[in-house]
Amino acid sequence: MFNLYFTALKSLAVKETNRYLRIWVQTLVPPVITTSLYFIIFGNLIGGRIGQMEGFSYMEFIVPGLIMMSVITSSYSNVSSSFFSQKFQKNIEELLIAPVPTHVIMWGFVVGGLGRSILVGTLVTTISLFFVPLQAYSWVMIIVTLLMTSILFSLAGLLNGIFAQSFDDVSIVPTFVLQPLTYLGGVFYSISMLPPFWRAVSRVNPIVYMISGFRYGFLGIIDVPILLSMGILVVFIVVLYAIDWYLIETGRGLRS
Amino acid sequence: MTYALEIKDLKKVYKGGVKALRGIDLTVEDGDFYALLGPNGAGKSTTIGVVTSLVNKTSGKVKVFDYDIDTDLTRAKQQIGLVPQEFNFNPFETVQQIVVNQAGYYGVPRKEAMKRSEKYLKQSDLWEKRDVRARMLSGGMKRRLMIARALMHEPRLLILDEPTAGVDIELRREMWDFLRELNKSGTTIILTTHYLEEAEMLCRNIGIIRAGELIEDTSMKSLLSKLMFETFILDLDTSGKVPEITGYPSEMVDESTLHVEVERNQGINDVFEQLSQQGIKVLSMRNKSNRLEELFLKITEENEHVEEANV
Predict the structure, then answer these.
(1) Closest CA to A218 of A64, A62, A56
(2) Which parts of the sequence belong to the ABC transporter domain (chain B) (predicted)?
(3) pTM above 0.90, yes or no
(4) Nearest CA among B87, B97, B95 for reference residue B132
(5) Is the Cβ of B78 closer than 8 Å to some Cβ of chain A?
């Protein structure tokens, strides 16, 4: 059975990878252009007037957050739109009738989200090299935070795809939930700069922990303790995984 | 006796209380070519949906080659190939990508899947189109692609839900030949269709579902033997004469076409003799309508009357 499941996982992962590569103009180019604009406007033009942030230039300070922002958006959108499209076109039935367990279906989609977000993250990092030199305080933290965040948001995107009934449902969450949480998650500022009340409110935002962990990997500075960041990521991954598994296993929105 | 499919007391109640299946018992033998017929909304697609695990059953037992879908779903699924009614492939993928991916979901390694894709796409006359995106195919090609995809893991049981809907006559005949060959090679086939002629031509056994119940489950031969009469259409060279047929209800529908109703025990030779004696030549002859169609309507109507009487 292991061979069957592994082959199925590979097939689904290849299919998902081909999907986002086939439509690269929609999946890879926009985040690169958007973050390039952020680098130019916030980092280069405005950043020069802001000065130092926790001992680093403003440009250096925002680079990890901007990379993380594109990773979050890419992993989420990839899985939510791919899963919903398959539901909409009914080709999810190809998987439902096949001897593929729910875990394999989930990991197939997660691998797609992971691949796209790593590719986008790499492209954005490459663009950032035109503005600031690459520095890495801890490669392990960079890689671990990147992978866990990408898995977490792939699972969140999957949840969105499971519940979505229309293409509007797929775009509502990124626009009205994900984007505000990312902007308020400390991409452009350190939450230690906020008044105590807003600092406490910010700690409810899970994206704060991811950006903090990722920035630690690059610059060695943190908004929240590393263990707490990792703990939050693990908890969210486990909870989302369990919910997604239950919903797909019971056929929520997939089987009548 | 090995059964490809065993269904016992299968019930399905949809949300909102619609009873789609009211306790179906059905067995399909290994190697059979079985037709599952019924009017729209009778429960055919729901039955297929439960067997292929696209629909959650309410109660009952389903076994595929002895693998219970409740306890051995993976092995049960491995035995089945499904050609659904609606096109459900990704229209933006190429023909070969679609079939190769599907094989992968059944554990067929990529190298082997590529080989099989050549075999089944050639059989389906789609090999030249292997790099074309599926949305660019004609309706008939899309149907063939669905069949090729379902065969990629070489299932023992192939379920076809309206496989020839919207397919032109020539192509339909080609598909029939292909399915006959497939069945001869040992694949059990279950077919639902609206073309009753198709079922009559292809299938050995037949089940008729109506309002969620299996009202007929028998051999095609024995079902057709229930037909008491047939209507024949005779094309005549009358040379201006009006044919008079005694002992058979008949009607001239135009100057040269005669409809004659013949009972099973009567035979049609006497009609030919009467026409010959009147100096009328029979140029050609055919059935007015498909025999199975007449029976199907009769059976479903009878069942409807019984239900009305019971209310």
Answers:
(1) A64
(2) 5-236
(3) no
(4) B95
(5) yes
